[in-house]
Amino acid sequence: MKKVLILGGTSDIGKHIVYGFGKRGYDIIVTGRDNKRLNEIKEYTIKNYNIKIQDYILDVEKFNSHEDFLNSLDDLPEITVCCFGYYEDQDEAFNKFEEALRTINVNYSGAVSLINRISKRYMEKKNGS
Q1: Where in the chain are the domains?
Q2: Among residues 4, 3, 14, which one has the least CA distance to residue 84?
Q3: Dist CA 6 CA 122 (whole Å)
Q4: Which of 2, 83, 84, 121 registers the highest number of CB atoms within 10 A of its CB?
Protein backbone atom coordinates (compact mmCIF):
# COMPACT_ATOMS: atom_id res chain seq x y z
CA MET A 1 0.00 0.00 0.00
CA LYS A 2 1.20 3.50 -0.80
CA LYS A 3 1.81 5.66 2.27
CA VAL A 4 2.67 9.34 2.81
CA LEU A 5 3.85 11.37 5.81
CA ILE A 6 2.35 14.86 5.89
CA LEU A 7 4.07 17.21 8.33
CA GLY A 8 1.85 20.12 9.29
CA GLY A 9 -1.33 18.54 8.03
CA THR A 10 -3.53 20.84 10.10
CA SER A 11 -2.53 23.92 8.10
CA ASP A 12 -4.97 25.00 5.39
CA ILE A 13 -2.65 23.72 2.67
CA GLY A 14 -1.81 20.59 4.65
CA LYS A 15 -5.46 19.65 5.11
CA HIS A 16 -6.05 19.70 1.36
CA ILE A 17 -2.87 17.73 0.75
CA VAL A 18 -4.18 15.09 3.18
CA TYR A 19 -7.48 14.97 1.28
CA GLY A 20 -5.71 14.82 -2.08
CA PHE A 21 -3.55 11.86 -1.09
CA GLY A 22 -6.54 10.19 0.57
CA LYS A 23 -8.57 10.55 -2.61
CA ARG A 24 -5.74 8.84 -4.49
CA GLY A 25 -5.75 5.87 -2.12
CA TYR A 26 -2.67 6.60 -0.02
CA ASP A 27 -2.53 5.61 3.62
CA ILE A 28 -1.55 8.71 5.59
CA ILE A 29 0.47 9.70 8.62
CA VAL A 30 -0.40 13.29 9.50
CA THR A 31 1.12 15.58 12.11
CA GLY A 32 0.05 18.85 13.64
CA ARG A 33 0.01 20.86 16.86
CA ASP A 34 -3.77 21.14 17.16
CA ASN A 35 -5.38 17.91 18.35
CA LYS A 36 -8.92 19.12 17.55
CA ARG A 37 -8.01 19.90 13.93
CA LEU A 38 -6.14 16.60 13.62
CA ASN A 39 -9.26 14.74 14.75
CA GLU A 40 -11.49 16.67 12.33
CA ILE A 41 -9.15 15.93 9.42
CA LYS A 42 -8.84 12.28 10.44
CA GLU A 43 -12.62 11.83 10.77
CA TYR A 44 -13.29 13.48 7.39
CA THR A 45 -10.60 11.39 5.71
CA ILE A 46 -11.85 8.10 7.19
CA LYS A 47 -15.45 8.97 6.28
CA ASN A 48 -14.69 9.91 2.66
CA TYR A 49 -11.77 7.66 1.63
CA ASN A 50 -11.13 3.97 2.19
CA ILE A 51 -7.66 4.40 3.70
CA LYS A 52 -5.78 4.16 6.99
CA ILE A 53 -4.77 7.39 8.68
CA GLN A 54 -2.62 7.90 11.77
CA ASP A 55 -2.33 11.24 13.49
CA TYR A 56 0.44 12.55 15.74
CA ILE A 57 0.80 15.71 17.78
CA LEU A 58 4.15 17.20 16.76
CA ASP A 59 5.53 20.60 17.69
CA VAL A 60 8.53 21.13 15.40
CA GLU A 61 9.97 23.74 17.78
CA LYS A 62 10.70 20.87 20.17
CA PHE A 63 13.79 19.72 18.31
CA ASN A 64 14.57 16.98 20.84
CA SER A 65 11.26 15.28 20.01
CA HIS A 66 12.03 14.77 16.31
CA GLU A 67 14.03 11.55 16.65
CA ASP A 68 11.50 10.06 19.08
CA PHE A 69 8.67 10.89 16.68
CA LEU A 70 10.42 9.18 13.77
CA ASN A 71 11.29 6.16 15.92
CA SER A 72 7.61 5.84 16.89
CA LEU A 73 6.59 5.23 13.26
CA ASP A 74 6.24 1.58 12.25
CA ASP A 75 7.84 2.38 8.92
CA LEU A 76 8.78 5.65 7.28
CA PRO A 77 6.53 6.20 4.25
CA GLU A 78 8.18 6.54 0.85
CA ILE A 79 6.84 10.11 0.51
CA THR A 80 7.13 13.01 2.95
CA VAL A 81 5.41 16.37 2.47
CA CYS A 82 6.39 19.29 4.69
CA CYS A 83 3.74 22.00 4.91
CA PHE A 84 4.01 23.37 8.42
CA GLY A 85 4.82 27.00 8.95
CA TYR A 86 4.43 29.93 11.26
CA TYR A 87 4.15 33.67 10.71
CA GLU A 88 1.60 34.96 13.16
CA ASP A 89 2.00 38.72 12.90
CA GLN A 90 4.40 40.60 10.62
CA ASP A 91 4.57 43.73 12.79
CA GLU A 92 5.20 41.69 15.90
CA ALA A 93 7.94 39.71 14.15
CA PHE A 94 9.61 42.98 13.13
CA ASN A 95 9.35 44.52 16.59
CA LYS A 96 9.80 41.58 18.95
CA PHE A 97 12.79 39.35 18.47
CA GLU A 98 11.07 36.50 20.34
CA GLU A 99 8.40 36.40 17.64
CA ALA A 100 10.99 36.52 14.85
CA LEU A 101 12.91 33.72 16.57
CA ARG A 102 9.79 31.56 16.82
CA THR A 103 9.20 32.07 13.10
CA ILE A 104 12.79 31.02 12.38
CA ASN A 105 12.58 28.03 14.72
CA VAL A 106 9.45 26.68 13.06
CA ASN A 107 10.00 27.60 9.41
CA TYR A 108 13.73 27.00 9.16
CA SER A 109 15.36 25.27 12.13
CA GLY A 110 12.48 22.88 12.77
CA ALA A 111 12.17 22.03 9.10
CA VAL A 112 15.92 21.45 8.70
CA SER A 113 16.10 19.29 11.82
CA LEU A 114 13.19 17.08 10.83
CA ILE A 115 13.83 16.87 7.09
CA ASN A 116 17.53 16.08 7.61
CA ARG A 117 16.60 13.15 9.86
CA ILE A 118 14.04 11.90 7.35
CA SER A 119 16.47 12.32 4.43
CA LYS A 120 19.12 10.34 6.28
CA ARG A 121 16.68 7.47 6.76
CA TYR A 122 15.69 7.59 3.08
CA MET A 123 19.35 7.46 2.06
CA GLU A 124 19.98 4.49 4.37
CA LYS A 125 17.12 2.49 2.88
CA LYS A 126 17.75 3.85 -0.65
CA ASN A 127 14.10 4.77 -1.05
CA GLY A 128 11.90 7.80 -0.44
CA SER A 129 11.25 11.38 -1.46
Answers
A1: 3-125
A2: 14
A3: 15
A4: 84
